[in-house]
Amino acid sequence: MEHIVIIGNGVSGVTTARHIRKLSDKKITIISAETDYFFSRTALMYVYMGHMKFEHTQPYESWFWKKNKIDLKKGFVNIIDAKSKTLLFNSGETMGYDKLVIATGSKPNKFGWPGQDLNGVMGMYHKQDLESLEKYAPNNKVCKRAVIVGGGLIGIELAEMLHSRHIPVTFLVRESSFWNGVLPEGESAMINREILENGIDLRLGVNLKEIKADEKGQAKSIVIAETGEEIACDVVGLTAGVSPNIDFIKESNMRNDANFSIQTGRGVKVNRFLETSVPDVYAIGDCAEQHEGIGSRRPIEAVWYTGRMMGETLAQTICGNRIEYKPRHWFNSAKFIDIEYQTYGWVWAQPKENEARFYWEHESGKKCIHLNYDKDTRAFIGINTFGIRMRHEFFDKVLTEKQTVEYVLEHLADANFDPEFYKLHEKEIVAQFNKENNTNIQLKKKSWKRIFA
Amino acid sequence: MKFKQMKILKHIGLAIFIIGLSIFTGSLFTGNFSLSQSQLDEYITSKGYKSEIIATELKKAVVTEESLNIFQFSSRVRDAFQNSNNHYDALIAKYDTEKNWDKKGEQYQYKIYGKPHTLSYDLAKKAGSGFVKENAGLLWWLTFGLGIIGALLFILPNLILLGAPGIKNNGVFLEASTNRGWIAWLVLVYLVLFYLLLYFMPDYVVNWTFILDPISEFLNGGAASQWFVYGFLYCVIMIVMAVRMYIKYRHNKYQVIRTTSVLFFQIVFAFLIPEIMTSLNMPGYDFKNAFPLDYDFFFEWNLDSLRNSGAIGLFILVWGIVLTLVIVPLMVYFFGKRWYCSWVCGCGGLAETLGDPYRQLSDKRLNAWKLERWVIHSVLVFSLVMTLVTLYCYFSGAEAFLGIKSQWIKDTYSFLIGAWFAGVIGTGFYPIFGNRVWCRFGCPLAAYLGLVQRFKSRFRITTNGGQCISCGNCSTYCEQGIDVRAYAQKGENIVRASCVGCGICSAVCPRGVLKLENGPEKGRINPTDILLGNDVDLMDLVNKK
Question: SS3 for B254?
């Protein structure tokens, strides 16, 4: 029986395993050094905030793995010996495989800041980070202030986490406005406000110079590069992005002969079939790097959804139906403290040459939508929606059918996914668009028939 | 600064609430219970007791200058009844051995039937005197009043403390009160004791009825019973805890409207209308309480009472049957069982208000789901068999049907399901097992609604394409213990018999994945392996095989 070994029990690896099991009775082993069972990484924050216990983040009960004959192995792989198809664990154990899936995810970026490895300095990625945070920031008596370095999704989540325990937070963001490499100005400004309204000390356009230690080797303050200001703190969160967690592969390549060297860049290089440069070795999820980004996507996509999709796809290939990874239209979501965010299609921070934009913001300043469409063909390109939920299927269809922005606005009622009785803003939105663009778009009534067609 | 003040206010509120609760609890231990000879004679005549023993026994027991508290009084009264019955039992045994059948048969008329604590309650209601009874208004303020004021002071600061509107479950699993800690266990003990007294030892809580006598007299013209106390308390608790819901979910209009709806139906339909009907000499009827949740609707006493109540009785009889057979399933078809369970029902109403802080404690394991299906459908069958037997016996005059004694099955159901399951366990166990134990495992109406919802309904919780991140908030906060995530992460709509449509899964979802909807039946159940967002061909290949 063919033995499929998957390194990493995140969503990519586990999805692969599940789908292989649906398709075959191959022997499957999932290896993880982090946890015994698969958990939802995106939910770690809720454990610290007390919304959930850690076990609630585990989507499958522990009997699931045995029932589906998926072996779980706790261990840390040091070396992949691709020639003999053997894994070497740091415990000295070995394990053979027939096909290997590398799904080791990411690790938090560190940019060589002085003091970045002190006690009380942590990322927010692994379960161990959560434990570390619980140790160094259990409450606002032990942790009188925390400084977060890096303004992305994990940064704002960490800020929200600490804020939930009433720990004062200083949030250092390199950019001039929060996440404005991804978000256009309006949305970015909205999130700046949301951060400030929650009493978080947001510092825009600043970099970390160093982290200073107390006599016990624990972080006691940070220094801002631009101003030289020193801020006393007990915890420093490093959330300046993540990069593929593949050090052990680079290590392995030094030991393997060139024919069995797994090609890497920032991540493990894969082709569209998610195959690495070595036969029978695949890479998926955060740690995989496409030779070229697919469509407008980045070569490395460190996103839950893409990890899952790669898993769904790779299982087919491993089970004999070799197919390309062909993700459909881009979508993503996040929550910035109290403001939910969804995006379908592309809305770049800066419009491209052929693009026109429409931005509507609610008077509360907590909801907005941003439409991106082609200036000439009027084709809908993407939407950012903040504080209003929208239907994935609606936009998927609109994008596939290459509908116009007018079509989208006409059918905005079909797109809405807010809970029943919520106040709807479609009329207001369409009216503003008509006014700005001298159009006469008439909003259609919501139609179940169209929605469920 | 404001934050600190609000916290202080909250603590003051808690202190006031505890004082109110302590006085409420302490009031049970107050008062003197005794009867004058003339009161006793009048009572015995009114009850038509033929036993001579009981008159002397009760006289010895309660016509006294001693100051008895309710527990001493109850014990003496129960002994008196016991002695009287023992006396005649002895005679029965004696005549039995003598084979003196005539004499033996005569003795039965002297026996006094009824639950000892209920007999004692009836007497205690007349025998009580003391500060509580004489100062009902003051005591109302010291118990209900302080309780309400304290609770509101505890709850209202949340407007500030919780921060901006939005989901704020911060600390739910870090607090002893909501994470099965010592506070939760204390609350459980208090609630369980409360229900045990209410159902099985009503005489012990007779002092509470004194506090509410004036209100009861105002509403229905009669003194308060323990059930009036329960109904009144139920409404008060729901109102206060609805305020908490309004604050907690003030950003979510579905929750606000739904909470208003359950509150309305509890206060108007379950409480006021029956009280007013009683005052008009009609049978007090809760028009929204559908059989088989209203399990005694077809009991002889109820049918007789309805038959003897003229037009209104007939109307109730027809309404009750139409409600269960037509309105309930039709509404479930269009809106799901939520229209009843989380918009109308009294049990649901309490669960959604008082029980909301405990919703995360329901068991999500697959085994719990298996158990649930066995237990709840068994209760449904039990209630139907009971009703069948009762009706057969009612119309045929027989004592039993299919070898089942009508009285026995009714008593058993009332005791096991009506009192223990719905009350003691259903509500008493909120703080440990979550707020919908009864609705999930026990309610026969929920079982019936669930079957309709599962197989013939337009209701579903739509999963928003591929947006789920498996975080688990939905499953954690599902009071019915549905593993919502198991569906959402497969891109599959949630169609489950037990879903009461409270809408909290949708509220707590951080990624806008879930929406409660009524729509066409076609495509309502949509199992998927590959989620939206991936390769179209792959979706076609895998999902449509």
Answer: helix
